[in-house]
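Pinned message: reference record for GCN5-related N-acetyltransferase
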Amino acid sequence: MIVLPEFAAARQLYGSLGFTPAPPVAFNPVPDTAFLGRDL
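Predicted structure (tokens):
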């Protein structure tokens, strides 16, 4: 999952659902973009 820096509320929501930082899966030119993942 890719979350842009301006979506702080979304990052909090994903964090509350168990998503954690993950390695990038694609190039993204936007600085400070968060890549998140979760084991299913």
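Pinned by admin. Summary line: The two ends are 13 Å apart (CA to CA).
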